Amino acid sequence: MSLLHQESPEELDDAALGEEFTKGSSHVVWAAIIAAVVVTLVLVVFAVASRKPPAASGEIVQVWAHPRHVETSGLDANGAPMPKESFDEVLLFAHVKLKNDSKYPLVLENALANVSPEEGILSVSAGSVAQFQEAVLAYPDLAALHTNALSPHMNLAPDQSVDGTIFWVLRFTRQQWDARKDWGPDSSHNDPGSKFGMNFTFSFQYQPSLVLAPQTAVMEQ
Description:
There is one protein chain. The protein is α+β, with helices and mostly antiparallel strands. Helix content is about 25%, strand content about 30%. It is built from three helices and nine strands, in the order αββββαββαβββ. A hairpin with a 6-residue loop joins strand 3 and strand 4 (about 120-125).
């Protein structure tokens, strides 16, 4: 028997097939990596190209709060006796500036005051202009706030700016109001976070909401 081993044609064919299979697998792996990189680049380019500037901008100039305890008279609209009721609330006023930065009209659908009591975040819709005026007239110590009232439902023409006061009623006790907390920014919800335990959301039709935080401490009336 010879000490030298000579491969048969069948063994040569099997070795060649194994080498070709290894090369083919390597090509498949590299093709998959290249395809994944291309898809990632396409998604990044699409995200950047489709990113639109905000449709609106704004500022919370100042916020005023008026905590109060309310007790009903015990008489109904006809003067008949009825059980008295009592509750606590906070009248909240914000001097707001808004601007339509787009080329199209914007429809403001709602204005929310977001306040964080001891747990969670409570969002309350703004009152109407009529409710704002009623509240200011009912309390002489709020007369200084009787300025230009803004409706939480309005149309903004392209490049139009508005400047005025929006009004909310929060069913908070004085203790809950004083215990409010700040929270951090959340980019996934377009939330800049809270200063002084609150911020404000302006919801526009067919557009992302604009969230603004006050930059100065809340003043109490």
